[in-house]
Design a protein that fits this description.
The complex is a heterodimer. Chain A is an alpha+beta fold. Chain A has five helices and three strands; from the N terminus they run ααβααββα. Chain A has a three-stranded antiparallel beta sheet. The longest helix of chain A has 33 residues. The N and C termini of chain A lie far apart (49 Å). By secondary structure, chain B is an alpha+beta fold. Chain B is built from three helices and six strands, in the order βααβββββα. Chain B has a six-stranded antiparallel beta sheet, covered by helices on one side. In chain B, a hairpin with a 3-residue loop joins β2 and β3. At the A-B interface, α1, α2 and α5 of A face β1, α1, β6 and α3 of B.
């Protein structure tokens, strides 16, 4: 999950994810075209995204297609779940605390 | 839905002033939250929240606007000074409910490690929220 956070921390990589979300599958050229950076730089960013599991690649003939895989984001969500459960318990205790005082 | 925050909304019959006291007064806090001790929250105040079973957590108040909004940062790890380790920001926002009572919005954010968001450009949470919606959708 640390790889996911690291991947998401960089604006260019978020832009790449956004475009993949909208376009489903793109080649390196298509991904690099609107960006003011070299294909090598884009390749490096895609490598980070791939290492984090956020991007999957698939060869179609001579074309390498990149797709978004959002599954690792679910892991982030699951990771937060215990913290959320702790707040649910605390807020329930706060409710009981406030209601107990009504009875005094 | 955002990716690195927990958000909860609860409603109480008690008025905002009463709820405010419960979420900022040290003795009141200790009766529902840290079971072994807290301190009175005030602008810039620093102190500890203490649990019998979990230890002592450093806390620093970062916003204090009675009876509407209080925000404090707390250390993720027990027995660790705030600036020596990861921390998250907890915010309580109280809104009067029409016809009486209080709406409390709880938000805890900052679970992503600080060093992982060195390029914290505005709007990235919105982008992530879109991604999460995409996952859910």
């Amino acid at each position: 999950m640390e790889l996911v956070f690291q991947a998401l921390a960089e604006p260019t990589r978020r832009e790449l994810l956004k475009r993949l979300r909208e376009a489903k599958a793109l080649t390196l050229s298509e991904l690099a075209a609107p960006l003011a950076m070299s294909r090598q730089a884009v390749t490096k960013h895609l490598g980070v995204l791939e290492a984090a599991g956020l991007v999957e690649v698939e060869w179609r003939g001579r074309e390498k297609l990149h797709r978004l895989n959002a599954e690792p984001l679910k892991a982030v969500d699951r990771w937060l779940a215990p913290y959320a459960a702790a707040w649910d318990r605390r807020l329930e205790r706060l409710r009981r605390h406030l209601e107990a005082e009504d009875d005094d | 839905m955002t990716i690195d925050a927990i958000e909860r909304r609860v409603e109480f019959d008690a008025e905002p002033e009463r709820v405010w006291k419960a979420v900022t007064d040290g003795r009141e806090l200790a009766s529902w939250f840290p079971d072994a001790g807290a301190f009175d929250l005030a602008p810039g105040a620093e102190g500890d929240f203490v649990w019998d079973n979990h230890g002592t957590y450093a806390v620093r108040v970062e916003a204090f606007d009675p009876p509407r909004h209080v925000a404090w940062r707390w250390a993720r790890d027990a027995e660790t000074p705030l600036d020596d380790g990861p921390s998250t920001l907890v915010e309580f926002t109280l809104t009067p409910r029409a016809g009486g009572g209080t709406i409390l919005d709880l938000r805890e954010s900052g679970f992503v490690r600080e060093q992982d968001r060195q390029s914290n450009i505005g709007g990235w949470k919105a982008e992530l929220a879109e991604l999460v919606d995409f996952v859910a959708g």
